[in-house]
Amino acid sequence: MPGGDDPLRIAGQDFGSRLLVGTGKFGSHQVMRDALVASGAEIVTVALRRVDLDRAGEGDVLDFVPPDMTLLPNTSGAVNAEEAHRLARLGRAAVGTGLVKLEVTPDPRTLAPDPVETLRAAELLVADGFTVLPYCPADPVLARRLEEAGCATVMPLGSWIGSNRGLRTRDALEVIIEAAGVPVVVDAGIGVPSDAAEAMEIGAAAVLVNTAIAVAADPVAMARAFALATLAGRLGYRAGRGTVGTATRAEASSPLTGFLGAATAGAAATAGLVAP
Hints:
Shape: globular
Helix content: 25-40%
Strand order of the largest sheet: 5-4-3-10-9
Structural class: alpha/beta
Order of helices and strands: EEEHEEHEHEHEHEHEHHH
Radius of gyration: 24 Å
Number of strands: 10
Distance between the termini: 59 Å
Largest sheet: 5 strands, parallel
CATH class: Alpha Beta
Number of helices: 9
């Protein structure tokens, strides 16, 4: 969905959509393609382990990614910095892009990103000329260190990857967003469109969604819903939230005094009940 005069800028490149979409878990490649188109996304991430690097067969996932979308290979499955670096180099050779979504997730139960190995991998990849978008814990100190290492974005999790539990890390995300000098992309755990809107409303530059779209009863409709929610959240953030009232006192939207009294007196005079 076009971003008009408010593009997402990553490493000097502008994108109209602030919704990034993944390619895993879809029931079929065709459903995935239809959902990608419906999402309006311009950046799509694909696990390098799922790509046929020899491109020898038919029906590879890359064959179903619309050609106008920017591929963001990811290092999903890497358990340390060296493995992430190796996967990224294979992806650059096969896909022809220096963009990489860095993922180092040694714990198969939580798929939590390893902060130490993620930072080490980021340093290796940046030194090797990659444009690095690291998936990381919602840790303000780590986010700052990744930015200092030269990463193009930081991508803190909202909750466990694939959990659809929403922004369980909101307080930390707000701190990261306030301090960041690079785009903050909320990645992992976003389960419904309102989660995406919430992330955008607190100032995230973008959101990345995969599972919530792929496992929906209607992935194409859900992709469209996420596109609208992401845009609405961004517009709300730019509009600026009004003053937040207290929990014990209401404030009427319309005045309760002043012109109401004058209007009542005027109506009474018109009816002949009092002298004008």
